[in-house]
C-alpha cells in the first residue's frame, strides 16, 4: 500500500485501533523510505518528514501514532549517505513493529494475572491489548464471561464479540447505555487506550469515562491495557490531548440532519477518564497505578525534556 493509501485508510478507520494504526504508519514510512529517490541525505530527510506529517495528521488523538512515527524518524538524526539513512529507517521500523507485537503479547500475559477464575468482565470498543488479556485468561483455563458494548457510532463492539465468540467465551452484547444497568454483575472492566496523560488520565473510545464512572460508583475495578508508546510525553508540559470529532454523518444520516436546522449533531470519538477511576494500567513493562504514568514517559519513551519544548 502506498503512503497516501495508508493515510486514507487510517483516516477512514479502515485501519483502526491505536496499536494497529501505529504499526501501519511505521510500515508505510518504511515502504516510502525504501522507494524514495533522493540526491542527498538532507533531501531524503526532508521528504521523509513530509511523509511523516501526512501520517501523523490522519488522526489527532491516538498518541501511539506520533510516538511511533517519531521513533522511526529519530533514526534519521545523522547520516552522510542516502543509503545509510534508508537502511536506518528500515531497521528502526522493523524494530518498532516487532516491539509493538511483542508488547501486546506481554500485556496479555501480565493483564491475565489480574483476571480471576469466575470473573465477569466488561470491555468497551475493540482493543487488541484489552482483548489480549481476556483471551489469555481464557486460554489459561479461567472460566470467564464478558459484557461487550455496541460502541456507537462505528459499532466496533461487533468485531469484539466475533473474536470472543470465536474463542468460545460466553459473551453478552449490550448497547452502550446499558452499562450502568449491568455494572453490578461485573467484577472487572478491561479497556484499552488511545493515549495516557502524565497525570494518569486515560483517553479512550467515547463512553469509557461513563463506564469508569459507573464502575467507580459500584466499586468495580477498572484496568487499562496500553503499550508504553500510548503515553503522551507532551502532557508533561501541560499540553492537552486533542479529542477527535469525526463526521457527524456517522451519528445521523445527512438527509435526516438536513431537515433539522436547529439540531447540531456532535461526534467526539474519545473521552477522558480521570486517573482516580482507573485502578491499574497494564503495560508491557509491568502493571502500574495511573499515578506512575510519568515514570513510563521518563523511562521508556526516550524523550529528552528539551525535545518537548
Ligand atoms: O491499540 P488497541 O489496544 O487495539 O486499541 C486501543 C483503542 O483504539 C481504538 O480507537 P479507534 O477504534 O481506532 O478509534 C479504541 O478506542 C481502543 O480502545
Number of E-state strands:
10
Shape: globular
Order of helices and strands: HHHHHEHEHEHEEEHEHEEEHH
Strand order of the largest sheet: 3-2-1-4-7-9-10
List segments where confidence is low: pLDDT < 50 over at least 5 consecutive residues.
none
Ends apart, CA distance between termini = 34 Å
Strand content: 5-15%
| CATH class bucket of the domain at 3-106 | Mainly Alpha
> What hetero molecules are in the model?
1,5-di-O-phosphono-alpha-D-ribofuranose
CATH topology type of the domain at 3-106: Four Helix Bundle (Hemerythrin (Met), subunit A)
Which architecture of the domain at 3-106 does the CATH hierarchy give at level 2?
Answer: Up-down Bundle
Largest sheet: 7 strands, mixed
State the fourth-level CATH superfamily of the domain at 3-106.
Answer: translation initiation factor eif-2b, domain 1
Helix content: 40-55%
Mean pLDDT: 96
Give a structural overview.
- The strands form two sheets. The protein has a seven-stranded mixed β-sheet with strand order 3-2-1-4-7-9-10, with helices on both faces. Strands 5-6-8 form a three-stranded antiparallel β-sheet, covered by helices on one side.
- The chain has about 300 residues and is of the alpha/beta class.
- It has a domain of about 100 residues: Up-down Bundle (Four Helix Bundle (Hemerythrin (Met), subunit A)), CATH 1.20.120.
- Strand 1, helix 6 and strand 2 form a beta-alpha-beta unit.
- The protein starts with a helix and ends with a helix.
- Helices cover about 45% and strands about 15% of the residues.
- Helix 2 runs antiparallel to helix 3 and helix 2 runs antiparallel to helix 5.
- The chain is globular and about 65 Å long.
- The relative contact order is 0.12.
- The chain binds 1,5-di-O-phosphono-alpha-D-ribofuranose (RI2).
- Catalyzes the isomerization of ribose 1,5-bisphosphate (R15P) to ribulose 1,5-bisphosphate (RuBP), the CO(2) acceptor and substrate for RubisCO. Functions in an archaeal AMP degradation pathway, together with AMP phosphorylase and RubisCO.
- Keywords: Carbohydrate metabolism, Initiation factor, Isomerase, Protein biosynthesis.
- GO terms for molecular function: ribose 1,5-bisphosphate isomerase activity; S-methyl-5-thioribose-1-phosphate isomerase activity; translation initiation factor activity.
- This is Ribose 1,5-bisphosphate isomerase.
- Pfam families: IF-2B.
Amino acid at each position: 500500500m502506498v503512503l497516501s493509501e495508508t493515510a486514507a485508510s487510517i483516516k477512514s478507520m479502515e485501519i483502526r485501533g491505536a496499536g494497529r494504526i501505529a504499526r501501519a504508519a511505521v510500515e508505510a514510512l518504511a515502504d516510502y523510505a525504501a522507494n524514495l529517490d533522493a540526491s542527498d541525505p538532507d533531501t531524503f530527510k526532508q521528504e521523509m518528514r513530509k511523509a511523516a506529517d501526512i501520517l501523523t495528521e490522519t488522526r489527532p488523538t491516538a498518541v501511539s501514532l506520533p510516538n511511533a512515527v517519531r521513533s522511526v524518524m529519530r533514526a534519521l538524526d545523522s547520516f552522510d549517505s542516502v543509503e545509510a539513512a534508508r537502511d536506518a529507517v528500515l531497521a528502526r521500523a522493523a524494530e518498532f513493529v516487532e516491539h509493538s507485537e511483542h508488547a501486546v503479547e506481554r500485556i496479555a500475559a501480565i493483564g491475565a494475572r489480574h483476571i480471576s477464575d469466575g470473573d465477569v468482565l466488561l470491555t468497551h470498543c475493540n482493543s487488541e491489548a484489552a482483548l489480549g488479556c481476556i483471551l489469555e485468561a481464557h486460554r489459561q483455563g479461567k472460566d470467564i464471561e464478558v459484557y461487550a458494548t455496541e460502541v456507537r457510532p462505528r459499532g466496533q463492539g461487533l468485531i469484539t464479540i466475533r473474536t470472543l465468540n470465536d474463542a468460545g467465551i460466553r459473551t453478552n452484547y449490550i448497547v452502550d447505555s446499558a452499562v450502568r444497568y449491568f455494572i453490578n454483575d461485573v467484577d472487572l472492566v478491561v479497556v484499552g487506550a488511545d493515549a495516557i496523560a502524565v497525570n494518569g488520565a486515560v483517553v479512550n473510545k467515547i463512553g469509557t469515562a461513563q463506564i469508569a464512572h459507573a464502575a467507580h460508583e459500584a466499586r468495580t475495578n477498572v484496568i487499562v491495557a496500553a503499550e508504553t508508546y500510548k503515553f503522551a510525553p507532551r502532557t508533561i508540559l501541560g499540553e492537552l490531548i486533542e479529542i477527535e470529532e469525526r463526521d457527524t454523518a456517522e451519528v445521523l444520516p445527512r438527509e435526516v440532519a438536513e431537515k433539522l436546522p436547529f439540531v447540531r449533531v456532535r461526534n467526539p470519538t474519545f473521552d477522558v477518564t480521570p486517573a482516580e477511576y482507573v485502578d491499574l494500567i497494564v503495560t508491557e513493562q509491568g502493571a502500574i497505578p495511573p499515578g506512575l504514568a510519568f515514570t513510563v514517559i521518563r523511562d521508556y519513551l526516550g524523550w529528552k525534556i528539551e525535545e518537548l519544548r
